[in-house]
Amino acid sequence: WKRFAISLSNLFSVEKDLEQAHIGDQIKSNKKNQPFRKLRKSAVDDALRVLARGKIDRSGPSLKTLRSMMSAYFADLNSVVPAFREYSEATNQLHQLDDAHSLKSNHTKKSSNQA
To answer: 10 Å Cβ neighbour count for 5?
Structure first.
């Protein structure tokens, strides 16, 4: 919005410079069709400054909400690696328990077969 306001201000400034240089005054134009002819550049700059400030201020809460949402996504992404690590460790423990149970079952089968 600031860039837009600056661009409009610069455009108005060029038009005012052309108006003051009386370029194109040879063409008899109707001054009633130029309602902004008496408008000063400072008035335009002030109005554009207020417009840009209002647009920027209005976008502030949305940007804060977006920042908190992105922070939450970042925290979620940071929790993925530890979650996979825990899952992997739990899987390894389950395999160890299963192997221990299988060994115990095989040992009891052999003992019962020998008796």
So the answer is: 19
CB-CB neighbours of 48 under 10 Å: 19
pLDDT score for 86 = 93
pTM surpassing 0.70?
no
DSSP 3-state of 86: helix
Task: Identify which of 17, 1, 8, 15 has the alpha carbon closest to the alpha carbon of residue 45.
Answer: 8
Check: CB of residue 51 under 8 Å from CB of residue 3. no
Q: Are 8 and 48 in contact (CB under 8 A)?
A: yes
- Residue found by looking up tokens 């077969």 in the block: 113
The tens digit of pLDDT for each residue in 62-73 reads: 888 888 888 888
